[in-house]
Structure to design on (152 residues):
């Protein structure tokens, strides 16, 4: 019984892989800028079903559209409270290093604030109230250990 189920699953898997390959070809035909990715290399150790190896890192990752990374990071922070770079990376599916760099840049621009643990979006009321924003900017340098005064 188990062998029959295993055989059915393998047969269905092969059908799905063939269908996926047809779809890749159709997508490549629709967008001439896209180079058709070479099919993944097949490997077998002779003891079991055929396995598909992962593509090389150069072909595995695609570049996001300009601003897409920042949008994903800000959306993740907007959906919950404070999050670490690792938590944002997990929530968005982005690489942790990319998320960390994006968060650092957003902190510098004031779009994101450092939290006790991680990062958070500024309070909505403060963003809507210019007096509150001015009060935040006027806080002493001790509240912002990385901020340097412009006169120094």
């Amino acid at each position: 019984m188990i062998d029959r189920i295993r055989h059915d699953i393998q047969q269905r898997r092969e059908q799905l892989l063939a269908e996926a390959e047809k779809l890749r070809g159709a997508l490549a035909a629709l967008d001439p800028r896209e180079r058709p990715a070479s099919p993944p290399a097949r490997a077998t150790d002779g003891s079991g079903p055929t396995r598909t190896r992962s593509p090389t890192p150069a072909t595995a990752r695609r570049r996001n559209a300009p601003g897409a990374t920042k949008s994903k990071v800000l959306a993740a922070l907007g959906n919950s409270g404070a999050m670490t770079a690792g938590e944002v990376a997990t929530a968005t599916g982005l690489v942790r290093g990319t998320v960390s760099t994006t968060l650092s840049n957003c902190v510098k621009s004031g779009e994101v604030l450092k939290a006790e643990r991680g990062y958070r979006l500024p309070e909505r009321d403060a963003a809507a109230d210019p007096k509150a924003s001015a009060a935040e900017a006027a806080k002493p340098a001790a509240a912002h250990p990385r901020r340097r005064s412009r006169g120094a």
